[in-house]
Each structure stands twice: as structure tokens, then as C-alpha cells.
Amino acid sequence: MPARRGRSIEVDFFRGVVLIVIVLDHIPGSVLSHLMLHSYALCDSAEVFVCLGGYASAAAYDAVLDKRGRSAARKRFFRRGYEIYRAYLLTALLTLLSGAVLALFHLNRPMVELTGWPSFSAAPLRETFDIAVLRQQPYLSSVLPMYVLFPLTVPFMVPLARRSAGAALAVSLVVWLAARPLAALLRIDDVGDWAFNPFAWQLMFVLGILCRVRPASDGFVGSGAGRWLTRVALATAVGFAIVKLFILTQPLPGHLKQNLSVERVINFIAIAWLAVWLVRNGFIAQLAQRLPGIVNVGQLGLVCFVGGTVISLVVDTATPRALHGVAHGLAALAGDLVAIVAVLMLARIWRDWSGRLSRRPAVRGADV
């Protein structure tokens, strides 16, 4: 994507789309989730989310560096890791509370199991400690622990990428190749405990940083080599779609996603290059300008992620299960639409509320 100052409307749009998709993907009966990336690719919204996180982090680091210097930029990202840790704890708490409420009223038993409430209620002190040290990650909170770690690498990886993109990529690839032994060494190799191996998924984050720090030029994208890459990317994406739709009839093992298999990486890179082509030709900016609500969701990513966990649980519980056939499909589709509107409204309400707080005059100590 273009290396521009300030926020990128395309990145915010993609982030908004991905956050809404994450909510839909975690509604087990969702109709629209069958149309999402995971249905026709070996990768899914997680790769997009993490890569865009790396891109946005590099942009934010540059912004703080320009205004306040290197020391402030480092402190900002150490503090960001702590902020995400707090968001992780809040998400885990909301997930467990949701499971407790569902269990109390004997609702949506499968979701009660997914939230982790039964094991928590059996040993609350041990489970609380395990959650605090990231050993256990209740349901939808599982993507956040690696995000606690990634901001800590930004003050080192962004300057390295500026000095040498090859060196930054080489370091990331070495860590990715050694991800499983490293996870085993630190006892995070069980997919039931860590759904995302951070040593593997850092590759997506670093790719996002490189897209910001060393973007492909307009001249290259439009050159003969660029057009050739676009054709290869399109053929690769179509090939993976055929494999996913017609050959792989059984769900893939969870460890392939946990450890970010090479197939997922290749499939994502092909789709990402096609996205770059769409951005360079202005299609995404035009779409984003027509759908500002989605851009707003992308700009409030952490808020919408945490709120989205509750939205997905509520919508799944409220969707009638006694219906069958067309009636069930229509009810599930209605639930999807309610979830989308809820995420959009959450972003709008939070934006308005935070805007009012920022405009409120400072209160002096003598007036308190």
C-alpha cells in the first residue's frame, strides 16, 4: 500500500471488514460466514487482521517518532502492549461472564462449553492464574495474547526494516521456521491453550510492517513484472480456492493454523498482492468512502473486537434453534444482520462518546 503520512483509509476499511467478519465467524449458525475468506482459501481473517496490525503499528511508530522522538515511540509501544493485555483480561472476563449467565439460565449449552465457564467454575483460582499468565485463553480472547507481545517488537523491527528489509524478513523467517520448538520450549505448544503460536504468527505481523516501511512502488505494480506477479497471484488464489472447495472435504488439523503453515502463508500472500492491486487502482478507497461506518470500525479496532465478542455470543444465543429449513436460514441471516449493525453502532456510539469527552473542558482541582 502507498506509504503515506497519517491514517490510511484503505487499511482502516480492511480492518473494519475483518473485525465484522471475526464476529460473524464466531457465530456458529452464521449464514454469511460461509461466504467469507476461510470458505475459499486456506487462510482466513486472522492473517489479514495480524498483517494489518503490523502495518498500522509501523505507521503509528513513525508518527510518534516524527513528533516526539525515538524514546517516546518506544514507550508508546511498551504501553500499547499493556493496553492490549488489559483488553485481553476484559475479553476473557466478558467471555466467562457470558458463559456463567448462559449456564445459569440453561441456554446455549454448546456455547457454555466454548466460553470455558465449566472448567473455570470447577477451579476458579487456578484458572484465574492461568488466564493472567496467558496459559489459558477463553474462547474469543485467544487472538489477543500474541498481540500483547507484538507491540514490544515494533521499536526494534521497524528501524531494522528501514535499514534492511531483507534482514528484517530473514529474522522473521528464522523465528517462523523455529516456531514449534520455541513454543514447546516455553510450553505454549498445546493448541488447546494457545490457539495462535506467536513465534509463527509474528511473520504476518512483520509482513505488515514491511508493507508499510518498504511498499511496492506504483511504477513496479504497473510494470511488466508487476502485471506478471498479479497474474501469478490470481492463478494461485484460484488454485487454492479450487482445492478448498472441491478437494479438501474435511476440516484441516488445528495445528496448521496455530503454527501458520506454509500453505496459509502462500495463499495469504497471493490474496494480499491482489488487494494491493485493488488499492493501487483506487477501488478500495472509493468503496471506503461510500461505507464510512466500516472505516469507523477499523479505526476503533480494539473496542470493536472486545465488544464483538459479546455481540457474537448474544446473537448466537438469541437465534432460534427449533426452526428448520428456510425458516432457520432466514433467522440465522437476520442474526448476522443484527450482529453487523451492532458492531457498526458500537463504533458510532464509542466515537461520539469519546469525541464529547475530548471536547469537554478540563476540570480544575478546586472545582472537584
From TrEMBL:
Keywords: Membrane, Transmembrane, Transmembrane helix. The chain crosses the membrane at residues 12-33, 45-64, 85-107, 139-158, 165-188, 194-211, 232-253, 265-283, 295-315, 327-350. It comes from the Bacteria. The keyword Disulfide bond does not apply. It comes from Paraburkholderia edwinii. Pfam families: OpgC_C (PF10129). The keyword Transport does not apply. This is OpgC domain-containing protein.
